[in-house]
């Protein structure tokens, strides 16, 4: 096991009626806040009214940034920063999924950055020096953003999608009521399950072999997705299924699984380039790319991990290790198909002539991946497999 430091200060309120804790936690955020949310679904469900009622009852002055889109844009971050500066706001409350929370996180630190907020992503994690306090009310299970210091933002002008990571970006508190995800559409739910699954895989497929504890936790989380993903699609208001997936999402990316080992993140790197250029839903892009990445990096020196994955997650056994490893990949693809995910990039609008540009975008800052380092030719091969 490698040396590590771990900090996870986000206070979690999990369960039915956990929104009732919001009022007491508003003291973290100050008296004047930016209320960040998406494209209107919280108004249809009544959550908007519930949140604003709590804000008003606690004499919180709030200003709104609405309309945050999937694959959130730097233009909305800029607008949010302008609002925070104009009204001298003390903190932010984000109500929604990962796109809303990531937008709020970037605004929170961008307020203190003297230049354009996109510079934070170009300069890297060390550019984050300070951030306004943030609280969240989660309405989507998948990204894990409610309990980590990660933010992913797209730049529509440069067709880039980049990430920053810093503990200062971790929410002060997050409210997780699984019933708030009942109204997620089947496609949103399925994409969220794939996103959770992929976060676990990116840390599970590691070159660090001395990670027994982390691997067993990861395998349990993967099996939770396999068990409850199809169930929640069949029964959208099944509370226990929604609860299992919501907490799995948080644990998958709150930093715990990555402690003491190297993580890969190559598939995420490729998908970010795809969705930056084609505005593909993140989970959909991952479902298409993961099996192709697996097939590309499966070789003699990496086979051990694929065998472990197939045996412990999918209960596939046999004397032929190469066949066991391949069967694990096949089961992964079958699981994504069971969730209703497409299997090719063509199905989401990507054509062969665009692959070169995606590959270039992916490795523009150097090789990606830790489990198996990938250059442009590797990325292009994976994209061709996925086409």
Report on this model:
With 387 residues, this protein is an alpha/beta fold. Helix content is 48%, strand content 11%. The protein is globular. 51% of the residues are buried.
Short description:
With about 375 residues, the protein is of the alpha/beta class.
How does the SSE layout of this entry go?
Blueprint: E1 11-14, H1 22-25, E2 32-37, H2 41-45, H3 47-57, E3 61-65, H4 74-86, E4 91-96, H5 98-110, H6 118-123, E5 134-138, E6 150-155, E7 160-165, E8 173-176, H7 186-204, H8 212-234, H9 239-252, H10 266-278, H11 282-297, H12 303-314, H13 321-338, H14 355-362, H15 376-386
Parallel strand pairs: 1-8, 2-3, 2-4, 4-5, 5-8
Antiparallel strand pairs: 6-7
The percent range for helix content is 40-55%
The side-by-side strand order for the widest beta sheet comes to: 1-8-5-4-2-3
- Cα Rg: 20 Å
Uncertain segments of ≥5 residues (pLDDT<50)? none
Structural class comes to: alpha/beta
Number of strands: 8
Mean pLDDT equals 97
Distance between the termini: 38 Å
Series of secondary-structure elements, N-terminal to C-terminal: EHEHHEHEHHEEEEHHHHHHHHH
Per DSSP, the total helix count is 15
Principal-axis shape: globular
Largest sheet: 6 strands, parallel
Beta-strand share of residues: 5-15%
């Amino acid at each position: 096991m490698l040396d590590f430091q771990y900090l996870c200060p986000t206070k979690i309120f999990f369960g039915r009626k956990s929104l009732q804790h919001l009022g007491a936690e508003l003291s973290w955020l100050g008296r004047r806040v930016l209320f960040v949310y998406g494209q209107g679904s919280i108004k249809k469900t009544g959550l908007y009214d519930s949140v604003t009622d709590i804000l008003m009852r606690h004499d919180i002055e709030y200003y709104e940034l609405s309309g945050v889109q999937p694959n959130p844009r730097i233009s909305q971050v800029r607008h949010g920063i302008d609002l925070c500066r104009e009204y001298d706001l003390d903190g932010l409350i984000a109500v929604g999924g990962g796109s809303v929370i990531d937008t709020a996180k970037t605004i929170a630190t961008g307020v203190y950055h003297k230049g354009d907020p996109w510079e934070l992503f170009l300069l890297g994690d060390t550019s984050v020096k300070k951030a306004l306090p943030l609280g969240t009310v989660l309405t989507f299970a998948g990204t894990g953003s409610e309990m980590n210091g990660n933010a992913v933002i797209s730049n529509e002008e440069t067709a880039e999608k980049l990430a920053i990571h810093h503990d200062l970006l971790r929410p002060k508190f997050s409210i997780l009521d699984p019933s708030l995800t009942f109204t997620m559409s089947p496609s949103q739910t399925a994409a969220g399950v794939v996103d959770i699954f992929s976060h676990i895989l990116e840390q599970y497929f590691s070159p660090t072999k001395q990670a027994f504890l982390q691997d067993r936790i990861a395998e349990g989380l993967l099996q939770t997705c396999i068990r409850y993903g199809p169930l929640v699609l069949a029964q959208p208001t099944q509370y226990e299924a929604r609860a299992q997936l919501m907490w799995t999402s948080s644990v998958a990316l709150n930093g715990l699984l990555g402690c003491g080992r190297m993580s890969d993140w190559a598939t995420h790197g490729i998908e970010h380039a795809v969705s930056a250029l084609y505005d593909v839903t993140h989970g959909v892009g991952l479902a298409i790319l993961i099996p192709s990445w697996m097939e590309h990096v499966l070789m003699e020196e990496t086979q051990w991990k694929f065998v472990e994955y197939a045996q412990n997650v999918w209960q596939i056994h046999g004397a032929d290790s190469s066949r066991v490893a391949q069967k694990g990949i096949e089961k992964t693809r079958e699981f994504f198909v069971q969730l209703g995910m497409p299997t090719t990039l063509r199905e989401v609008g990507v054509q062969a002539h665009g692959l070169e540009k995606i590959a270039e975008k992916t490795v523009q800052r150097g090789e990606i991946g830790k489990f198996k380092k990938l250059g442009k030719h590797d990325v292009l091969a994976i994209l061709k497999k996925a086409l």
